TrEMBL record:
<feature type="binding site">
    <location>
        <position position="318"/>
    </location>
    <ligand>
        <name>[4Fe-4S] cluster</name>
    </ligand>
</feature>
<dbReference type="InterPro" id="IPR006638">
    <property type="entry name" value="Elp3/MiaA/NifB-like_rSAM"/>
</dbReference>
<dbReference type="GO" id="GO:0005506">
    <property type="term" value="F:iron ion binding"/>
</dbReference>
<feature type="binding site">
    <location>
        <position position="325"/>
    </location>
    <ligand>
        <name>[4Fe-4S] cluster</name>
    </ligand>
</feature>
<comment type="similarity">
    <text>Belongs to the UPF0313 family.</text>
</comment>
<protein>
    <submittedName>
        <fullName>YgiQ family radical SAM protein</fullName>
    </submittedName>
</protein>
<dbReference type="InterPro" id="IPR024560">
    <property type="entry name" value="UPF0313_C"/>
</dbReference>
<keyword id="KW-0411">Iron-sulfur</keyword>
<dbReference type="InterPro" id="IPR058240">
    <property type="entry name" value="rSAM_sf"/>
</dbReference>
<keyword id="KW-0408">Iron</keyword>
<feature type="domain" description="Radical SAM core">
    <location>
        <begin position="304"/>
        <end position="584"/>
    </location>
</feature>
<keyword id="KW-0479">Metal-binding</keyword>
<feature type="binding site">
    <location>
        <position position="322"/>
    </location>
    <ligand>
        <name>[4Fe-4S] cluster</name>
    </ligand>
</feature>
<dbReference type="Pfam" id="PF08497">
    <property type="entry name" value="Radical_SAM_N"/>
</dbReference>
<keyword id="KW-0004">4Fe-4S</keyword>
<dbReference type="InterPro" id="IPR022946">
    <property type="entry name" value="UPF0313"/>
</dbReference>
<dbReference type="InterPro" id="IPR007197">
    <property type="entry name" value="rSAM"/>
</dbReference>
Amino acid sequence: MIERPLTDWLPLTMKEVEKRGWDEVDIVLVSGDAYVDHPAFGTAVIGRIMESEGFRVAIIAQPNWKDDLRDFRKFGKPKYFFGVTAGCMDSMVNHYTANKRLRSNDSYTPGGEAGFRPDYATIVYTKILKEIYPDVPVLLGGIEASLRRVTHYDYWQDKLMPSILVDAGADMLVYGMGEQPLREILKLARQGVPFSSMRNINQVAFLHDASTELQEYNEWSSVELASHEVCLEDKIKYAANFKIVEVESNKWQANRILQKVGDQVLVINPPFKTMEEAEIDQSFDLPYTRLPHPKYKKRGPIPSYEMIKFSVNMHRGCFGGCSFCTISAHQGKFVASRSEKSVLKEVEEITKHPEFKGYISDLGGPSANMYKMKGKDESICARCQSPSCIHPVICSNLDTSHKPMTELYRKVDAHPAIKKAFVGSGVRYDLLVDDFNKNNQDGNHDEYMEQLVTRHVSGRLKVAPEHTSDDTLRVMRKPSFKYFRLFKEKYDKIQEKFNLKQPLIPYFISSHPGCEEQDMANLAAETKDLGFQLEQVQDFTPTPMTVAEVIYYSGVHPYTLKPVKTAKTREEKKNQNNYFFWYKPEYKNWIRDRLTKLNRPDLLERLLGSAKKESTNKYTGNYNGRKRK
């Protein structure tokens, strides 16, 4: 293997800065993740964009925040600003389970070792930088900053917190996918414009002194939320705020959002319109090495990199709008798809990787089968305020053709160095059920599904019905479980036709708002009847900037302000979760006692009635808490 020069990566040390012949650094990025120079890692993307605009960029990856803080000082004072991100995950989701137990590993650290980033990393890093360099602006970005940009409920402290800008003391925040606002910020910074004057850029948030007048820009109208202080006193007002934030975040012609917090006003400018194909291609086509920085070689592999190093992300965004998911809140409701040329170029790059053995692990995205999907008449999309394009029904204006994906899969398959290209991302199965999706006029969904099942399933296919109760599914913004049954019939027919044995892996959530204990018992019975034994399943975690988080905290749905029952105590959550494991001997007496107390002999009979009826099939699922639709 030929060693690449160290200067192929963005510098992590002063020695690497000097190797490039620089006498100073323009921008320093501080990240809670190890530095992997790959388009799946936000710090690499942001750094490469800055580099492409002619800026000298250095990275402080996973700095030690407990010692004399030398890591934060190593590059000195940057010419323009510091950029801070907690990394690819919210640091609290990264650190803790749904039961608030500390995780023993970190997928974004060499060797999977835990303990290399603090809780609330964005806040901790920014406070340190402001203490050392009080006159240097700090720009926040990444998923932690994005989802905490406004008053939000923090599950781990069990309280409302203000915009992360307040606690961090940063100068500005970029929310969502940051390429478009970042290029605007860089252009103005080069011209010498201070951050305090960058007030007319889309997709940024900042704090404004409430005693001075807030200027109007770009003919934006403003909508005011209940203040942070009012939210602290009134959970219903907090819930009502969320509806406004979600609606404005998903509009093409959105309003500016204002919220008073103390003696300041939080200002959230409207988002940019979804990136066009050429823009997203530009981001993915930057000169990444696609490798972790060489400094990590002796510390062991980085699990998150190992998982994606031979995968291709074909698009961003998700129009599902699921109540528990953060993807649309961060990446947007509208899908931004790469060109075929860009995807095939990345496939070619992967084939040159020294460890590549001919297998692409994933041709996918947030939901694998949303590539190239968008409104047929985009003027209708421009006026749309719905948080989902497919709930409660699929929008008649949504082009759900799977043809572009089918053709692209075939082109990847035809590459001489590719033995197999799998789809590892979760498939949005409801788009493939004709009873639910009426937009399948030319049968291209069936062609796609046959191509998928026969060529691109790596042993098993992941789908996410999430629940069996229609009431719970409505709260989740998911379709009725009857459509999963229809999908399974279709899937099984294709398997039978081609003599395949590739189990479906359905994912389910317990303790989601709107779910009661009897609903979980029924879920166990329904999935048992279908031949599933569920092993790795998910207990609901309230994550900032989701409908489900708002319901969990406030007790009401933000769109109706009507009460929704939610399991909150550890005992209630454990009781719901236990039903997943009806087939394990250690749970059987407990289930018998609970269903007897609930007066549900029918469910008891279905679950434990006859040993002969119990399925011997064992289908398992795995869920990392971030990418489920």
